[in-house]
Specification:
The protein is mainly α. The chain folds into three domains: 260 residues, no CATH class; 83 residues; 51 residues, no CATH class. It contains 16 helices and two strands. Strands 1-2 form a two-stranded antiparallel sheet. Strand 1 and strand 2 form a beta hairpin. Helix 6 crosses helix 7, helix 7 runs antiparallel to helix 15 and helix 15 runs antiparallel to helix 16. The radius of gyration is 22 Å and the shape is globular. The two termini are 19 Å apart. The relative contact order is 0.13. About 2% of the residues have low confidence.
């Protein structure tokens, strides 16, 4: 492979790697319609196809970054905190009880960042990337809907909920929510003849989201819809007359209302949860959080090692599964998992990362369409561990959106075509 060949083909290599990564992110690389493991001995081992496919994409994207080293370093300097979290997570590998597992999963996280960085530094983080995401959805959504209608294994009988190609209903809910965001953004860009097809796909995606019966994703979608309406009203109606104060107070009241209800009349909030098939324990999540936090207190400052906690066969896992009477592989509270695995230091870096993103989002001159993926991930992460979880659609698009904001600034300083 010559340097000239790589210079000419790096953008194409980055685009193909990005498309395939997103494709496998939605479809997965394992066999679909498989039952959940009910015992520790049934927990699946590493998927070799998964290893080979993603490793090839990581390597191809790394090669695509070589001709644009300057812009890649500019992106790292602009975003700062994701790079810092990667470095801290790497350091945490050395005190993990499962060094090899933690390091392997850290490599996979780094690979995801490399794939997204290569795609973003070679292309304008706008319409072209949106078209790639939509192309995946035009395959994924109809096939998922056909699967739940024709294949019994695409439904979870215990919940009477759809899971499609994913392993469980909440993952389908997250994929569907991401699809709705992509297609809503697409409707603003599509020409008239393509808008009809996008609208039809949007409706199919909404059906999948409803069929998944994922309370977390449904609530996140409702909150995002509310936020979008408020932002639109603030820009078009309120700002000319009253600035942003009314919008701020409206959003603040919306966010504080559950806290006020819980304080004044807890039974009201309990009734609301019952409407969604939940209770005040969030489907036993409170018990999970208590168990995880008890372990987190043993290494509160630095954590137990990146992604090195949910390892079957350990004493902690055996005891937890015995107490809970079911098998899990996450804490169902992403911020608690980050605290447990990377400590107060890691959680502080993630908090700084979010603040840095929001600050630059507010002061930015251009509209940032990908911000909705960040908002969705921040909401869903309160009930599902998705941020910095491997091959999670919700978490992966969070990282992509974070990078996209700063890649846009880099592109304006150094347009595509310059190294």
């Amino acid at each position: 492979m010559t340097v000239d060949w790589l210079d000419r083909n790096a953008p194409k290599l980055a685009r193909i790697s990005f498309f395939l990564y997103v494709f496998f992110l939605f479809f997965g690389t394992g066999l679909p319609f498989q039952d959940h493991p009910t015992e520790l001995l049934e927990t699946p081992v590493s998927n070799p196809i998964n290893q080979y496919v993603f490793s090839a994409l990581y390597l191809a994207s790394l090669l695509a970054l070589l001709p644009v080293r300057t812009r890649t370093l500019q992106l790292a300097r602009q975003e700062k905190f994701l790079t810092l979290f990667l470095l801290w997570s790497l350091a945490s590998v050395f005190w993990s009880d499962f060094v090899f597992i933690s390091f392997k999963r850290w490599i996979q996280l780094l690979g995801m960042v490399v794939v997204f960085s290569a795609a973003l530094v070679h292309r304008d983080p706008g319409t072209g990337i949106l078209d790639d995401l939509k192309a995946v959805l035009f395959l994924y959504i109809p096939l998922s809907l056909a699967a739940v209608l024709l294949v019994s294994g695409a439904t979870e009988p215990d919940f009477n909920a759809w899971r499609g190609f994913t392993s469980q209903k909440n993952m389908l809910g997250q994929s569907s929510l991401a699809g709705l965001i992509v297609l809503t953004l697409s409707l603003r860009e599509d020409v008239s003849w393509n808008r009809v097809a996008t609208c039809l796909l949007w409706c199919m995606t909404l059906v999948l989201l409803l069929g998944s019966r994922s309370t977390t994703s449904l609530l996140a979608g409702g909150i995002l819809l509310f936020a979008a309406v408020v932002l639109h009203a603030e820009r078009t109606l309120l700002r000319p007359f009253a600035g942003g104060m009314i919008s701020f107070l409206t959003v603040l009241a919306f966010l504080l209302s559950p806290v006020l209800i819980l304080f004044l009349e807890p039974t009201v909030l309990d009734s609301i949860f019952m409407e969604f098939g939940k209770d005040m324990t969030f489907t036993n999540r409170v018990d999970i959080w208590a168990n995880v936090f008890d372990d987190a207190k043993r290494h509160l400052l630095v954590g137990c090692g990146f992604d090195g906690y949910w390892v079957p066969g350990t004493t902690e896992m055996d005891l937890m599964f015995k107490n809970l009477q079911f098998i899990i592989n996450q804490g169902h509270l992403g911020y608690l998992d980050i605290l447990n695995e990377t400590g107060v230091v890691g959680l502080g870096i993630v908090a700084s990362m979010v603040i840095h993103y929001l600050k630059n989002l507010v002061i930015g001159e251009n509209e940032e369409p990908w911000k909705w993926f960040v908002f969705a991930a921040l909401i869903v992460n309160f009930q599902e561990s998705t941020i910095f979880r491997l091959h999670s659609v919700n978490g992966a698009l969070f990282v992509f959106s974070y990078l996209a904001l700063f890649a846009g600034a880099v592109q304006r300083l150094s347009p595509p075509g310059e190294s």
